[in-house]
Amino acid sequence: MEEPERLARGFERGFLAGRRLADLPWEDLELELKNSRDSSSLLAVLQKTVLHPLCLKYPPSVKYRRCFLTELIKKHEGVADEPLDALYEALGNVLNAEESTHCYKNYLLPSGDAVTLCESTAIISQGTTGLVTWDAGLYLAEWALENSAVFSGRSVLELGSGIGLTGIAISKACRPRAYTFSDHHQLVLQQLSENIHLNGFLLEPKAHSQDAAKGQSCTAELVELQGPNLTVVELDWNSVTKEQLADLRPEVVLAADVVYDPQLIQALTGVLQKLSICNSDGDPPEVYIAFAIRNPDTYHLFQTELDKAGIRWQVVPGSQKNLFPYDSHANITILKLHL
Ligand SMILES: C[S@@+](CC[C@H](N)C(=O)[O-])C[C@H]1O[C@@H](n2cnc3c(N)ncnc32)[C@H](O)[C@@H]1O
Asked: Which of 43, 63, 154, 170 could, after both became Cys, cross-link 251 (CB 3.0–4.6 A)?
């Protein structure tokens, strides 16, 4: 691969997923600009970012694109006397675009396919944390892609799915038989359903137990032909019953970034206890929970509640690939729970 192309690929993945601008490989670009003394590397970066077909169709926020182009222009001005028209033209287009409360993020998968999500531009909006993708969700998806055998041909239930990154990535890359997304917040459920459609999946019309049962009877060939059977259910940890959980018949249960509020921990542990007796075949589901340890007290409280409920746990090694743009310094853990 030529140097400008290699460099541009270094920007592509991070830019499309809205990675922090400071984490993009600016120093490599500066070095290349100084060495080559021409603009081919800048033009290649522009093609793989702001002019990328995914960005043209599903753009990151106006602010993000504006700041990115401003930085790119600065790098160019540091080495060149003449302005580069293509950069100013791109900036002009962005300055004419309207700011919105929503933007798109495109998370590239190893296959070259992408998970495209419509997300909120604010971390907390409409009283929920569920309208953006969190680092633990990205980390869990990355781990899942490396461990697809855990999901292949199985029925998966996700708790607190948010807007769907983890489940959509698994549905695209790990061939589950059925995947049930769940959350309790109406706007989150609505955005989640829209994102599932955006990624080319059809949702089962109603989230009833029959849907899960239908998923049970799907053969591997059907999964290959039609893709997994996807459903979205409203599921509140405070009120869900054993019967409702049993109807879903999960073989694998996932949750990402749901251990952040001490008040939620008891409700979550209650759901796990109910899940331990919900499988009519006798085998409790395998459970994987990923979370960022922001406050060690919250993590210890979760461990204490698990111990009280008689749920054994072990830390699962994460992936080292850094495929998705989570903060590599964040302290993220995946626990496998033995119900
Ligand atoms: C920090 S977000 C994580 C979203 C997603 N899993 C991710 O990693 O990007 C926490 C999610 O848990 C959901 N949640 C919080 N309390 C809940 C409850 N009692 N029942 C069901 N879902 C809940 C929120 O609506 C939100 O979508």
From this structure: 154
Task: Give whole-number Cα distances, 150 to 9, 154, 274, 316, 336, in Å.
Answer: 30, 8, 22, 13, 12
Centroid of ligand 1 to alpha carbon of 232 (angstroms): 14
CA of 273 to the centre of ligand 1 (A): 18
CA atoms of 19 and 299, how far apart (whole Å): 27
- Whole-number Å distance, alpha carbon 187 to ligand 1 midpoint, is 12
Nearest ligand 1 atom, CA 135: 8
Residue pointed to by tokens 């109910």? 274
Burial readout 39-58 (b: 16 or more C-beta within 10 A, e: otherwise): bbbbbbbbbbbbebebbeeb
Residue 157's contacts (CB-CB under 8 Å, 6 or more residues apart) are 180, 182, 245, 248, 250, 252, 253, 254, 285
Q: What is the pLDDT of residues 224-278, one digit of tens each?
A: 557 899 999 999 999 999 999 999 999 999 999 999 888 899 999 999 999 987 6
What pTM was computed for the model?
Answer: 0.92
Please write the tens of the pLDDT for every residue from 29-58. Answer: 999 998 887 889 999 999 999 999 999 999
SS3 9: helix
How far is the centre of ligand 1, averaged over its atoms, from the C-alpha of 152 (Å)? 25
- The CA distance from 170 to 115, in Å, is 10
Q: 293, 159, 156, 158: which is closest to 238 by C-alpha?
A: 159
What is the structure's pLDDT at 129?
A: 86
User: What length does the chain have?
Assistant: 339
Per the CB < 8 A criterion, the answer to whether 181 and 190 are in contact is no
Closest atom of ligand 1 to 290 CA is: 8
Q: Which CATH architecture has domain 103-338?
A: 3-Layer(aba) Sandwich (3.40)
> What is the whole-number distance in angstroms between the Cα of residue 130 and the centre of ligand 1?
6
Asked if 275 and 285 count as a contact pair (C-beta separation under 8 A), the reply is yes
Name the residue at shortest CA distance from atom 4 of ligand 1: 162
Q: Is 161 in the pocket of ligand 1 (CB under 6 A)?
A: yes
